[in-house]
């Protein structure tokens, strides 16, 4: 397979020695052959770089708390703007479509319509670029790390084929998809949390399933209307799909059958979905800007526990943090259309974003594995980085 390593940012330093140095630095962070795990010590090292004024490291926190026994409070959220994630690499294009934190190491993936994807080290100051990959004639609309963090998958709305990049080997693999399965694009896909599947939305209500290991097509599921959103529960045994008819489908991934479907309350057209990490809630966003929060498991005709009306344009992105006490909601159709919901109280934090944040039109939202960071990508060539001060660990 053809390597996709050449980076215009590095033209002046394109010698083999420089590339070897970058690779050694990368391996030093993520580990080889066994990938680095985030420990409390690692988290403190990363976070202490940008929180000297917060004295956070005095507390013996766990995954979701800074002070033992202190829950996240509603009303105002402790949030601090840091240097952009793409500070050291600005070649993902004017529209940055993806920002995603690595599942086990302090790294982030940034990708955009220029066809370039970058891996950066997350420290809040330099956010140093470790790798940058250019996929020729391939505008990246969606990209995700594999569950084990060893690869990332990149897809585009202009092609049914996709790419897989091996981080340690520095190799890109072109994954051809046969026209007979009916897939026409790869701009809306997700990875199952059990590491087994890639689910991609197709045309005419089709959902194409591929193996995450070999990237081979397995089967195609079918729902009514166009599929606009897909998500899995925490163990990958259930998948939820949502589309233009406003119906939410629940799929059993062992039998590959729809076991339940229901109309999203008051919805004309479904646009986004997310399941909380504790499997307690399903969030559904619609074209009217409404987000409904359902308690799981849902019955046949469920009513939302909470309806959030803070957005007024199509909800294009929903994301829970790992501890399931924050739900991020965004629309890419209006500037600064992003809100953070305090899940326990079902109220929106009033201090984000402020008028000075100027976040633009948000395309993607992601929380770092243990909640310490929030990343946003927008239409201004930015991958924004924020520190959530309640959470001690990365």
Automatic annotation (TrEMBL):
Keywords: Nucleus, Phosphoprotein, Repeat, rRNA processing, WD repeat
Source domain of life: Eukaryota
One Gene Ontology term from the biological process aspect of the record: rRNA processing
GO (cellular component) term, any one: Pwp2p-containing subcomplex of 90S preribosome
Places the protein is found: Nucleus, Nucleolus
Database matches in Gene3D superfamilies: YVTN repeat-like/Quinoprotein amine dehydrogenase (2.130.10.10)
Main localisation: nucleus
InterPro entries recorded: Utp18, WD40/YVTN_repeat-like_dom_sf, WD40_repeat_dom_sf, WD40_rpt
Stored Pfam families: WD40 (PF00400)
Ligase keyword on record: no
SMART domains: WD40
Similarity annotation: Belongs to the WD repeat UTP18 family.
Function text: Part of the small subunit (SSU) processome, first precursor of the small eukaryotic ribosomal subunit. During the assembly of the SSU processome in the nucleolus, many ribosome biogenesis factors, an RNA chaperone and ribosomal proteins associate with the nascent pre-rRNA and work in concert to generate RNA folding, modifications, rearrangements and cleavage as well as targeted degradation of pre-ribosomal RNA by the RNA exosome. Involved in nucleolar processing of pre-18S ribosomal RNA.
PANTHER family (alphabetical): U3 SMALL NUCLEOLAR RNA-ASSOCIATED PROTEIN 18 HOMOLOG, WD-REPEAT PROTEIN-RELATED
The protein, known as: U3 small nucleolar RNA-associated protein 18 homolog
Species of the source: Sipha flava (yellow sugarcane aphid)
